[in-house]
Amino acid sequence: MAEECVQYECDIVQFDIFFSISQTPDTTGYIPSENEMFSNFLDQVELADELGFGVGWVAQAHLSTEIQKRNTKPVVPHYPGEVGLCTDFFQIAQKMFSRTKRMDVGSAVLSILASGGPIAIAERVGSFIALHGMMEEENRRLHIGFSAVRFEFMARPYGIVPRNEIEEAAWPALRGQIFAEASEIFLRLLSGEVISSEMIRDTILTRDNFRSDEDWEKVQLASMKHNDSNDLPELIEIPHRYDFEEIKTIPQEWRRELLNLVVGSHDPKLQIEVNKWRPVQVFNLSITPAHVIDATHERMRQYYHQDGGEWNRSMMPRTIMVFINNEEGLTSEEQSLAAKKEAKAALTTYWSALEGTIDPAKVERASDNAVIGNVEEVVEQISQRFDSNDRLMCWFDFFNHDSERVKRDMTAFMEKVAPNIEERK
Q: What is the per-residue pLDDT across 401-410, written as a single tens digit (0 to 9) for each?
């Protein structure tokens, strides 16, 4: 059913699951060992498969969040512990497939700028699916959600830093252009093409790439200084980040029908551009405003690559934090109050970790974009807020290391919430 709903509108909300494997203090201050983190994760993966979640999405991270605090420009200076322990998605994916029978596996999201860059990662994808798809009866797909990088410090050691004063001045805008260049390389190699850097898009900066005249002027002045020129440039060409002669990745004869691609970018131009090469779907968050969601669907209906079939809403997975309480011994009202208390504690811990302070307004807004309550309340919230063709990536382990409780919440959701949503829709 899940695979059919990717091809056609099914009028059934589809439920995936999101695993963060985040080794940070939970609301009680407890931090599990790495071994405990992985053990809990794999237990939850097996249960998710049994319960019928469609795709098990895993967050990817790189390098120690704790150690980056010592950097001259720490990206998350207050975050305690490690934001994620999945540093090699392909090894994690192999482990997940080996312990499940039905569930697809996905990365949410894999950086194509880190870990060797787009060429190395394209080769890993092909190599993985060549082995995964050896048995003809294997039909579980690998979903590669890809982006620039989760946090900028994770890409810096791989050379994703400004190379001169022009790039330094243009960096916030230029990073997106580097990702666009990497995306084209990645997608064309996955399609089996022979390519060289001469065949890849040029990066030319103009005023349109910048938010303000002041930002653009800084780059223009940096260019004049760097090139010892007296003329203010109207466009600035940036040399390729990746320079290579003709290449093609191997293995070549892997089953491309087992691969699904999803870009983690809100840039409308990039969403269109990547679909020139292959069918590429789009990630969005539960906190994304409704008008942005609708505009993205409208755009993708027009520009989604023809080889992917007709665009439908399930092709844009959306993360949603789930705070459900179905604990025994509590009345329905007590479950509702307990769920709200648990959600507030988790979200407060999150914002404190991310920013070093607690902003009640941000906690409140995040609560509005989660589903919180007893079974009946969660059914009502999802039924009211989401379209019947949406695909939701349910996040149960948000700042919660009580694995047995997480598994009870997963079970309550799929056995008591999901069937009732289908009836409502």
A: 999 999 999 9
